[in-house]
Specification:
By secondary structure, this protein is an alpha+beta fold. It contains 3 helices and 5 strands; from the N terminus they run αβββαββα. The longest helix has 21 residues, at 59-79.
Length: 140
């Protein structure tokens, strides 16, 4: 396994060097909108502390991130009146990981509607509207 690269895009987002549409933040985690959403309301959840993925994360990093994943899953399900939620997490290039900072994808899902293909830039105004809906739907 390679060492953590502090210049990865999510580390830059955490430092405020790259803008992001944040929907939730606490002392340990950050949730923000994916700019290439595979579904309306596609959110990414990351720890604020450095780790590449599940393979090198500490149990503490995993615990705080999964708690935020659950919070975001409930928020996106409510915000989009979704039938379900897909949670994705990839590890190392062979496992599909593209950004080497631990992250979980949280996507609201509707019966009979497929996810969009990966790698397609979203409409930033629409993403901002979706972020507002998610922020408004958060409870507890």
């Amino acid at each position: 396994m390679t060492d953590y690269d502090s210049d990865n895009i999510f580390a830059k987002i955490l430092r405020g060097e790259i803008p992001s549409n944040r929907v939730y933040e606490d002392d340990e985690t950050l949730a923000f909108m994916d700019i290439m959403p595979r579904a309306d309301g596609h959110v990414l959840v990351i720890p604020k502390s450095p780790c590449r993925n599940v393979l090198d994360a500490t149990p503490e990093q995993l615990a705080v991130v999964i708690a935020t994943v659950q919070k975001m899953a409930k928020a996106v399900k409510a915000a989009f009146d979704a039938d379900g939620v897909t949670i994705q997490q990839f590890n190392e290039a062979a496992g599909g990981q593209e950004v080497f900072h631990l992250h979980f994808h949280v996507l609201p899902r509707h019966e009979g509607i497929s996810m969009r293909p990966p790698g397609q830039m979203g409409d930033f105004d629409l993403i901002a509207e979706h972020a507002d809906r998610i922020r408004s739907a958060q409870v507890g």
